[in-house]
Amino acid sequence: MNRVLVTGGTGYLGTQLIAALLREGRPVRTTVRSLESEAQVREAVRRGGADDGDLEIVTAGLTADDGWAEATKGCEEVHHTASPMILSQDPDEVIVPARDGALRVLRAARDSGARRVVLTSSFAAIGYSPKPGAEYTEQDWTDPDTPGLAPYPRSKAIAERAAWDFHEREGGDTELVTVNPTFILGPALIAQVRSSLGLTKAMLDGTMSAAPRQRFGVADVRDVADLHIRAMAAPEAAGKRYLALADGPTISFLGMARILRDHLGPLAARVPTEEAPGTEPPHLIIHNDRAKSELHWSPRPAETTIVQTAESLRDLGLLDHQ
Ligand code: NAP
Questions:
Q1: Domain NAD-dependent epimerase/dehydratase: where (predicted)?
Q2: How close is the Cα of 18 to the center of ligand 1, in Å?
Q3: Could you tell me the domains of the chain?
């Protein structure tokens, strides 16, 4: 069977996606920056209930052309999850690799005759420019020049726009779909506090003394992986964006802390009980109807995801107090 490429094999999402594909019997190739992470990736994938025998691991970085032609060779399906998920304020560390890396993957996929690329974008590319009513669908775009926008959300808006522009002008026969998750939570397979897991750890360890005043949608990492697979398979998904988040209202960090406290007893004894001072953020309304109606996607409840994030950090020994 045709090998599927997943970029970002060390990632929180990447490892769940690789495991899901392998569990379906699909041979997978993944890219990592260095083969030093190979053993960790294989262990993560096995933790996800998959046999890593059909997993090939190759090297390619977002900031250089090396390795991308070999990585995409023979792959009809390319899932591009790799992108810097870091807090750096330096655009060269965040925006340049996100944008240029996406273009490298799209170019290599086109040149090797891939049928479709499914790119992990973000709600950050959709709803980070304020608008009256704060209600967002796939029709919305974050303006990268929105005042005060941090480099990470800028990187996602700029990279996704660059990807669609490339697709329209030079994409050839290779189709493009984007998956746009909100805040990703849920169990980790790789035993590292990566990406968005740091905030749950900070809550549980008690290093987050007050909950930041922010509202967000929760997307379960397993559901985002599942949406990637659905977005790759469905013919009608070509050329579309899909928001990924749980049903129900968006929540705050204080709301998340309450859920942890209600379900986890002593494990959640240190979660914040108060919000940081400041003004109440807009009550975001974010629609996930497209993924549900067109791709029959069925996300888990946010509460389940939040509780299982904490349990996963505990089970992997990643908390300071257990
Ligand atoms: P993650 O665990 O940090 O994974 C990011 C992946 O990108 C890692 O494999 C990382 O490799 C790779 N990467 C970063 N910079 C790279 C570079 N210069 N060259 C090659 N690879 C590079 O974060 P994640 O949460 O799984 O993120 C996966 C995707 O989901 C990203 O596109 C992210 O923007 C998107 N997303 C995440 C969230 C969220 O809340 N987590 C929400 C919406 C969208 P290394 O291990 O070598 O650094």
A1: 4-239
A2: 14
A3: 187-218+247-322 (3.90.25)
